[in-house]
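LOG
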Amino acid sequence: MRFEKVVESHHYDRFGELLYILHKNNRKYLNDALAEYDLNLLQAMCMFIMIDRKDISQQELTELLFLTKSGITKAIRKLETDGFIERSRSETDARQYVLNLTQKGMDTIPTLIKIYDEWEELIGLNELDDKFLEILTNLTYKAIDLNKP
């Protein structure tokens, strides 16, 4: 059964169900739009994190994105191969590698922001008030805390 049929045949009244549907459609839209640039959502998320975090380790990325090391490895490898990021030895720990955006990666960021902004505008996220976003952010942090080991 196609996803649209499921949505039409079921009344969604649970917050988790709504978030799941929003997330699935967000991921599909962004992956489709990013494919034009030979990128995917996970790769874009890694790049966004690297804007503000210089010399970030792969381990830090896995923790920030709540993924396994193997989940991040493929994305990082592709970004490096395509010239969006570079990997180098850490100056503080020679056993560890750090990741940084290249100039090509930095030049791509405005395009990624445009794609994200377009999706948010199309579904009306820009119309939400600050209080709703504050509540949603607090709920997100509570959910993270509930799942900490």
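LOG (cont.) second protein
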Amino acid sequence: MMTTMATRNESKTPWTATHPGTILRYELEGREISQKDFAVMIGMQKSHLNELIKGKRPITKPIADKKRFSASLQYRW
């Protein structure tokens, strides 16, 4: 027997999707990493990274695999 869990939006505000570039921008700001430095870290043109962060370019599988974003965002302890 398989059970499923219902998901409900209890708030009055509907859910909205967040572009991955927005999350990346917050992560870079929180870690005080410039877009230029991060672009160099992952081997991407700064202009492409900027378009990604602004939501004008999607994060495709090749981009995500290109040095793996998460591996490049190492925690500072």
